[in-house]
Amino acid sequence: MIIGVTGGIASGKSTVARAFAARGIPWVDADEVAREVVAPGEPALTEIAEHFGCEVLTPDGGLDRRALREIVFADAEARQRLERITHPRIRRRLAAHLERLQAQGAPYVLLVSPLLFESGQDAMVDRCLVIDVPEETQIARTAARDGVDEAQARAIVAAQMSRTERLARADDVIDNSADEAGLAAQVTELDRRYRAAVGLPPGR
Ligand SMILES: CC(C)(COP(=O)(O)OP(=O)(O)OC[C@H]1O[C@@H](n2cnc3c(N)ncnc32)[C@H](O)[C@@H]1O)[C@@H](O)C(=O)NCCC(=O)NCCS
Ligand SMILES: Nc1ncnc2c1ncn2[C@@H]1O[C@H](COP(=O)(O)OP(=O)(O)OP(=O)(O)O)[C@@H](O)[C@H]1O
Asked: What number is the average pLDDT over the span 16-32?
């Protein structure tokens, strides 16, 4: 069984994934795979440089993530162009990672992705778990963690599915508006339900 874990920027997906991992559940991170597909030498990086120009490359030939971020979150067409280059490659790699993890015999596995619904990755999973927080909390946590300014944080939130639409597509929801202790209790309960769904006894 594959559980898709999604939520907007800084909603708490990685924090939730770490809590599941502490209970023996492995995860694949779409943001991490998105970095792998644009590493130096990868065809996606060549395509990005051809389309966006050398200004999105660092002097040593890597991707200048900040420069590209400033372009794509100010221009929906540019963002769609970037997604056409990266998303099919991200999907293929995610499928390979998930297959490998499942072959290792985990009770179930997580696919953690900010764009689970937007990019059609939900077709790869059995259930969708949404991490829900108010937008203002997302903005505050993004600014505190990534040091991006408030306008950029708002532009990123605006480029993602709305909170209402995401919740409408959820099978399960974690409310992460309170503290991390509240989060851990919700993870424990979901882990118990997911294990039961695959015919296993509750974990620790
Ligand atoms: C634009 C890029 C270079 C910015 O890199 P940067 O290091 O600043 O941010 P990072 O990759 O850590 O992403 C931070 C967050 O931005 C949001 N985000 C990223 N890409 C997108 C997008 N195309 N649409 C909406 N939100 C996005 C996600 O919430 C993500 O967690 C990078 O995000 C990217 O290559 N995006 C396209 C690939 C993609 O869609 N990734 C999302 C995972 S499927
Ligand atoms: N319940 C909480 N209370 C306070 N801070 C929290 C809580 N949950 C997460 N955070 C903090 O908010 C920030 C975002 O959390 P996290 O990195 O887990 O989100 P994410 O959804 O994985 O983000 P992204 O997809 O943008 O990388 C982190 O700095 C994290 O420590």
From this structure: 97
**Global pTM?**
0.96
Task: Return the SS3 of 128.
Answer: strand
- Can you list the domains of the chain with their CATH numbers? 2-197 (3.40.50.300)
Angle at 30 between CA 200 and CA 8, to 5 degrees: 95
Q: State in Å: Cα 11 to ligand 2 middle.
A: 6
* Contact (CB, 8 A) for 47 and 13: no
Residue 149 — very low, low, confident or very high, per pLDDT cuts 50/70/90? confident
Structure tokens at 68: 């590209």
Instruction: State how far the Cα of 30 lies from the Cα of 119, in Å rounded to an integer.
Output: 11
What number is the ipTM of this complex?
0.96
- Whether the CB of 187 sits within 6 Å of ligand 1: no
> What residues line ligand 2, using a CB cutoff of 6 Å?
7, 9-15, 31, 114, 141, 145, 176, 179-180, 183
DSSP assignments along 48-62, one per residue: HHHHH-GGGB-TTSS
